[in-house]
Every structure is written in C-alpha cells, then in structure tokens.
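Lab notebook, entry 450. We have the chain sequence and a SMILES string for nicotinamide-adenine-dinucleotide, and the next step in the workflow is to get a structural model of the bound complex before anyone spends time on docking refinements. Request logged below.

Task: model protein plus nicotinamide-adenine-dinucleotide, output structure tokens.
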Amino acid sequence: MTDRYQTFTRTPLGQTLVKNLGLPDPTPLPRWTEGSPVIDGPVVFGAIGETDAGKAIQALLRDIGASFSTATEGVASSEIRPKALVFDATGATSTADLTSLQRFFSPVIRQLAPAGRVIVVGRTPELAQSAEQQIAQRALEGFTRSLGKEVKRGATVNLVYVAPDAHEQLDSTLRFFLSTKSAYVDAQVVRIGTGPLVSNDPDQPLAGKTALVTGAARGIGAAIADTLARDGATVIGVDVPQNADALRTVISKIGGTELLLDVTAVDAPQRIAAHAVEHHGGLDIVVHNAGITRDKRLANMRTDAWDAVLDVNLRAPERITNHLLDSNALRDGGSIIGVASIAGIAGNNGQTNYATSKAGVIGLVQALAPKPMLTERQIRINAVAPGFIETEMTAKIPFTIREVGRRINSLQQGGLPIDVAETIAWFADPASAGVTGNVVRVCGQSLLGA
Ligand SMILES: NC(=O)c1ccc[n+]([C@@H]2O[C@H](COP(=O)([O-])OP(=O)(O)OC[C@H]3O[C@@H](n4cnc5c(N)ncnc54)[C@H](O)[C@@H]3O)[C@@H](O)[C@H]2O)c1
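Result returned:
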C-alpha cells in the first residue's frame, strides 16, 4: 500500500509545508537490491581500547571492502560524511569509560549520511566479570535508544551485545545491521552468544536448506518465502485451502512446494513433518508467520474470537515446533522463527487476545532457546516483533488510526513486508549460529512499548 503522505512530502510544496508547519518528514528508506555492497559509503570506527571484538569488527569491515577510518574521538571534519559509525564498547569496564561515547559520537554524529547506520557493540551485561562492568554495559542501552530518537533522515541506531569469546560470531549480525536489509530495524538490542563457526557464501547463505513458511500466500509471509528463496533456500509454503491460488502464485515463482492446510488442524504438525521428510528429506528453517486478528475489547470479546486467535497465533506454533523437534524432522543446526508483534510487548486497546498470543510467542522463544533439546543440536529460536507494516492487515485499519500508527516511530513511516523478511533471513542464516533467544522488533523504533 502506498504512503501518500510520504510521496507528497517529496514534492516542492510538500517540503515547504513540512518545514513551515513542522510536520513529519519521513525520509524514503533504501532497500537492498541484488549486487548492492553491504555498505555504500565510509565507515568510522571507534573503540574503548583494543579488544577481540574490535579486531573482529575491523576484519569484517576489511572483508566487505568498506572504506573505514579509526578514531577515538570522532571526526569533526565536514568533508567526511560517514555512512556508518561503529563503536566497540566491549572494553568498558566501569562507568568512567562511558565518557568515550560522548567523546566519539558528539563531534561526528551530525555528519552521518542519510539512512546511515550507528552500531554500538557491547559485552552482554549478565555475563560481565564485575558489577562495575555490568553497570557500564547496561548503560549502553539508554545511549543507543536515545540516539535512535535523535538521528534523523532514515538513520538507525542498534546495540549488539556479544558474550565473552563470541566475537567470531559477529559477522552475519554486523552485515545485517550495516546494510539496507535492516532499514526498519531501529533501537534494538541483540544478544550474541558462542556457537559453531559457519562460513558460507553471504550471497547464498541458505543454499541447500529447506524452509517452511506458514501463511505464505500473501503479505509478510509471501515476502519471507521470496527472501529465503533469494538466499538459496527451498521453500515449503503453507496456507489455508481458500488461498490455494495465491499460494501457487508465490511458490511457482520460487520453485518450492505447497502444502494446503490449516495450521490449527489436529494433524497439522504430523502432515507438515511428513511433507518435509517425503519431499525434502527434512527441514532446516521453520517460520511461524500465519496469524490472524479478531479485535474487540475484552468486555465484548466472543469466545470464538478469543479461541481462534490463540489457536492460530500461539497454539499452532507451539504444537508444530514440539512435533518437529520430537520427530527430528527439524535437522541439527536448524532455526525456528516466530512472528510476534509490538502489541505483544506494549499491549493494545481491543487486542487482549492478539497481544496474549503474541506475548506467548515471545514466551516460546524464551522457554525453548536454553533447552538442551535445542542447544545440544545447535537449534536456534528467535522471533521478530513487527510494528506497523504495510499489508492487507494494516490497510483495513481506519484512516486516522492508520495514519497515526504509521508516524509514531522514529522513522515516521510504516515498514514493508521485506523488512520483516530480511530480519528473518538474518535469523535463518547458519552463520548466525550465536543468535538465539532474541526478539527483535521491526518497528522503526515505535513509541509503543519502547
Ligand atoms: N501487518 C502488520 O503490521 C503486522 C504487525 C505485527 C505482526 N504481524 C504478524 O505478521 C504475520 C503476517 O501478517 P500479515 O500482515 O502478512 O497478515 P495477512 O493477513 O496479510 O496474511 C496472513 C496469512 O496467514 C494465513 N493464515 C491465517 N490463518 C491460517 C491458518 N489457520 N492456517 C494457515 N494459514 C493461515 C492467511 O491465509 C494469510 O495468507 C502475522 O502473524 C501477524 O500477526 C503483522
């Protein structure tokens, strides 16, 4: 769906009105296209001391051919227009070290290019070696979340916490956050742990993998199917029989297989496992995207509306996940991805059923990620929590509420299905072996539930 207001603000009259009336001025966000470099401009790197994480970051910047300079106290020169500022704060061992944030960023932040990237890398606070270090590391969250609200023109700010000895796992995550693939992911905090080192082709990271995508016939699910196929996966698209034609259109473009079923059917988990094993020898990636809304205030909530939403959005992912794990249809090294929502974090008027189901998806991630049944087989589980994404679901929202929903985020616009899909592709990438137990919002730093 087109954002007519954003199109208008790009006209001369629109720009005049935006400036004179102080209206929202959403910068068009570039999205990744084939052949794009990871980052298309200079990078300035700063650090608190020399650390393993810092070395890994610089090695990656060299690897992707980025032109980068290092600076301890930023660069005030107006000639440099950095596309990204990357700061290694893993060396912060006490609050005294936090001064480095101001010293590095203040002189250079104004120079950040449109749609620029700020990435701060810290040490996972819970795994710090001392209380002083934990406090300093935890403080980084306030810094990045505030800076996210200050940077303008489509720029984003994210924080990546890396566990001790996990610096070699930074690669796929930094590629994601530096690139336009993370266009609508803003002010997020990601935790990276240790895991096996997987080096694959960043252009085809999912080659040889099979991915199941539920609700693949349209909207976000169709974008996920396309994106995983672009990255080399063979996709099994699942949707209800009523959407058979739409599912066929999606799958015939990408050459996967279709499975028509209702994910809430009693035998859905068994049918999914049987299809995956029979046609593809098993599964590597599972994306629980199928979801519905049946909005009503709780006082007016009918039993069927409550049950339907809980069944599709939460019980089906739970039952399917359990069966795929128990039956070993999901192979070792696999990746399970839930689709939650910011409503599941912030709550939303008229959505007690939906928000319960989506908070439950976050619970599923948190409950399963540390289970030996997954960790011993290097199976990872994460979730995305989309904010306002332009789809048929959000097109149905009444105009005024829709317009507010679109603008109340730092990027002042709705996201696109591709933004959710790219985040899922990063989770699915075997090179993201250290990424598990995360819930990443794809919401442009929505003010809801921040
Ligand atoms: N659009 C947004 O802004 C937004 C925001 C937050 C979260 N989400 C979540 O993202 C996911 C996709 O949303 P969307 O906007 O693309 O929705 P959509 O309604 O456009 O598409 C959902 C798809 O899921 C399928 N589906 C529904 N029930 C099913 C069932 N029982 N069995 C099999 N397939 C079923 C539908 O047929 C449809 O093809 C959902 O989980 C939704 O809750 C969307």
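Notes for the group: Residues 214-215, 217-221, 238-240, 243, 262-264, 289-292, 312, 339, 341, 386, 388-389, 391-394 surround nicotinamide-adenine-dinucleotide (CB under 6 Å). Worth checking against the assay data. The radius of gyration is 22 Å.
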